[in-house]
Amino acid sequence: MLCIGYQLREGIVSALLPQRRFLHTYSRGDQQIVQVHNSVYSGYSWLTPRTKKSTVMSSSLHRYYAAALFFALNLCACAPSGTEAPASTESIQVSPHRHIESPDWRDQIVYFVMIDRFNDGDASNNDQGTGEYDPNDPAKFSGGDLAGVIRQIDYIKGLGATALWMTPPVANQWWDGMIQYGGYHGYWAENFKAIDAHFGQLQDYQRLAELLHRQDMYLIHDVVVNHTGNFFDYNGTYDAADPTQHFFINDDSTPVKAPTQPPFHLNDIRNPEHREAGIYHWTPIIRDFGDIEQEKNWQLSNLDDLNTDNPVVRRALRDSYGYWIKEVGVDAFRIDTAFYVYPEFFHDFMYSDDPEAPGVMRVAEQTGRKQFHLFGEGFGIDRAFDDSVTRKIDGYMRDETGRKLLPGMVNFPLYGTIQDVFIRGRPTSEMRYRIETMMKAHESPHLMSTFVDNHDVERFLASGDITGFKQALTLIMTLPGIPTIYYGTEQLLTEQRAAMFAGGYQSGGKDRFDRQAPMYKFLQEVIALRKHYPALRRGTPKLVADNPAAPGALAYLMEYPQQTLLVVFNTADQPTLMSNVQWQTTQALRLKEVFSSAGTRHELTLKPGQVLNRELAAREFSVWEVLPTTDKPEVAQSSTSVTLSIDPLPSTSYVGDVVLEGSIKGLNTAKLLINGNLADAISVQADSNGRWQYRLDTSSMINPNQTHRVVLWSEKTGVASSAQEFTVKRQWQPILQISDAAGDDKGPFARYRYPLDASWGTSKGLDIQNVSVFTSGSALKVSVKMAELVAAWNPVNGFDHLVLTMFIEMPERDAGARALPFQNAELPDNMRWHYRLRTHGWSNALFSAKGAGPENEGTPVSPGAEIEVDRSAKTITVSIPAKSLGNPPSLSGVKLYLNSWDYGEGYRPLGEQPTSHDFGGGRADEPRWMDQTKVIVLP
Ligand SMILES: [Ca+2]
Ligand SMILES: [Ca+2]
Ligand SMILES: [Ca+2]
Ligand SMILES: [Ca+2]
Fold it and tell me: The Glycosyl hydrolase family 13 catalytic domain covers which part of the protein (predicted)?
């Protein structure tokens, strides 16, 4: 189904693929050895005489302790001048803390650190002298390192975390001039077996592992098997029959121009020896993520794709990663970009019996780790009520025959629904579906990583609020999965990769390791709750309340032998009624509140079979322990004689008003609640026969797929009627159709040009062809037909490379704005806008003009618009409920104006020359639209 309406506070997912692309498109890094081998920077004098080949390739299993000792001593003796060599004796000897038994991973809480942005413990390694270091530049190294992480172990442990996951510490391509971005993040390896010079030395990593183990904490190593950095590429048309055509080596790479680790250095297809070795796929950049051949074998962004079918590559990767288990004592792997490698690869990676380079599970077993953990990244989210990405993710944990692959995967679909429900105010039924689906689809959901933020997505707080953030964190702390806290969550960071230390990028000039910060304390409390109750870590969720058409109540039990907890949220901005919750019929129950947003500790008793009805304050959340009891429930006297009812409704959809009726006994009035909303409760009165009736206006119920729920409620007695449900399929009247000239997608001066990246296709994607307008009462539906509709980056809304912005002027309404925010233009024909809808592949955001200006988008409006996309018909259709337009009496005289552009991190730049994703043919300050409609006036 293609009904994805994004509301209120949109944003996060909008950044998903483009940002992913952004970051994996740009990376690099390196290590001392590398520089020695390549001497790219003459005059750089620090050297380490060890060759990584001698230590790296020779480390067979039975010798790994000895090798580690040798390595550590060697490192210590040969530390570059000017670098202080840690002098601790425990890092010179192989510590008994290096190898420890695996924990039960279901019980772990992970803290995730981007090394370069977390803490700087050694300023002398920050600037390696190639221009790669600049803490004011988000694309460059900021100075964080392993020594810095070591200094903050207590801070991490203090939160309650039990495991540390860090971005890859390995030697990276430091700077890729081709795309003007650096490998400070660690995902652009040039050597999978060496520590990057910016981060420290092997010894530091060993020391970190040992110190964590001493604290009963575990270390997760971030693994890339899909690609190296960007050392080669293609220009011009790719010819699969002759991949040497248009191939070039990326000369604009520092500190090395090719990986230094064998066999990954064999990367030039024009060299017969390299070609014969077949280490790489030598393919261009993925253009169509729906094409499995491209997905698995082409370059993700510019990153050189390894030939992971080649046994030589497989052996080198097993060797590279077994190394970190043996030499450092890492306890788990997180696998980057798993979707870009066939699932079958991982069976070999884990279980190969190659004596030279055994599978990593074999290596782990030999270090005493019987439950070595691996979890893969499958970057993709599902649409509401869809599970296709969920199933794809499951394909990495077991194959069709049931053979086990990776023990866990990152739970991206749950993340996507967290965003929708706790930021965008989507109905809580979407979360119910997601939780039930993940439990059904996966064999071991308890071993999947759950998260609210990570390094590849916009932070929650960039568009969500703190209460929603706390709800989202409470959700992952009370559901199956291994909760992962991205660094800075506890300090309310809003920038994706801001530094926690004063000297780093966007630090705000101060260290931010504040253990008194309110969010640090909140996390301590909710993590302690999870640790206290095994049901929260190991139990099975059973959904007992949701809201199918609006934000509101969400509740689930976590059931575990001898222990049951009830978790309750109200996701709405207004009070809501959670009604008719029932899971127990034979026993009386005592509910003890053990955690709540309000700090309350209520207790309730339910008699056998009694339903739970409870008013929830706006955005309230709580956790209750559920205990059997023999206590007598306190039932209000008056309620025994009160009954409320709503007559059953027909199962067909309504097209207009809904007449609701029923009976009230024992009272005169009751409240009629639509979708649980207490703020807009309707008071209904019993007639002399105890009957009541109400005619409900459905003009704002524009999504025909949503089920609306009505309940009659008596606050005083705590009695609720059974719920009745209905759907509304509005009749839309076509009222206007205009066509727009073909081929006029050239901007206001007919001279703009499209960006150059191949994913733009034939570059007609911004040519508006046709606009059709429909109304239903005062609800508005606009359908826009484009000359072409592209979906290059697997966008959630089904199209990308296009932002449509629609401006709406309400007749006879004051104020409004003239400016087109961030588009360097004003509305034509003296039009003013009161509402503005910005729609692209990842977002569909409705704003009012309040506060709007050239650099201000206005104020988010809820509920937002629904969107439907028909790729084959090249149409994008948006529907706006009457309520969101201020319930105007009619839409006659309403003015509309639309234009087209593209959106990355904001409206894309315009310059004299087009670049891969920037528009050309204009000045930066000229209007940013390619095509526009005239001002459309509704009759
Ligand atoms: Ca440093
Ligand atoms: Ca490349
Ligand atoms: Ca691949
Ligand atoms: Ca046009």
Answer: 112-530
Helix (H, G, I), strand (E, B) or coil at 569: strand
**Residues by chain with Cβ below 5 Å of ion ligand 1:** 120, 122, 125-126, 143, 145
Q: What is the DSSP letter of 867?
A: E
Helix and strand element counts for the chain (H, E): 19, 47
Sequence-separated (6 or more) residues with CB below 8 Å from residue 375: 332, 333, 334, 335, 406, 407, 408, 409, 410, 447, 448, 449, 482
| 429 CA from centroid of ligand 1 (Å) | 47
Residue 74 has a CB neighbour count (10 Å cut-off) of 17
Ligand 1 centroid to Cα of residue 24, in Å, is: 23
Of the ligands numbered here, which is closest to the C-alpha atom of 929? 4
Q: Which ligand is located closest to the Cα atom of residue 933?
A: 4
Euclidean distance between CA atoms 12 and 19, whole angstroms: 10
Give the span between the Cα atoms of 617 and 609, in whole angstroms: 25
Cis preceding linkage at 263, omega within 30: yes
Expressed in angstroms and rounded, the spacing between residue 234 Cα and the centre of ligand 2 is 8
**Which residues are within 5 Å of ligand 3 (an ion), measured at CB?**
226, 305, 340
Q: How far is the CA of 301 from the centre of ligand 2 (A)?
A: 8
Q: What domains are defined for the chain? A: 538-634 (2.60.40.1180), 638-727 (2.60.40.10), 731-937 (2.60.40.1190)
What does the pLDDT look like over 645-686, one tens digit per residue?
A: 999 999 889 998 999 999 999 999 999 999 999 999 999 999
* Residue 616 dihedral angles phi and psi, to the nearest 5°: -110, 130
DSSP for residue 798: S
Q: Which residues of 456-477 are buried (b: 16+ CB within 10 A; e: fewer)?
A: bbbbbbbbbeebbbbbbbbbbb
pLDDT of residue 634: 58
Neighbours of 705 (CB within 10 A): 13
Torsion angles phi and psi, residue 219, rounded to 5: -115, 130
Q: At what angle do helices 518-532 and 466-477 cross, to 10 degrees?
A: 20
Cβ neighbours for 495, distance < 8 A, ≥ 6 positions apart: 459, 462, 506
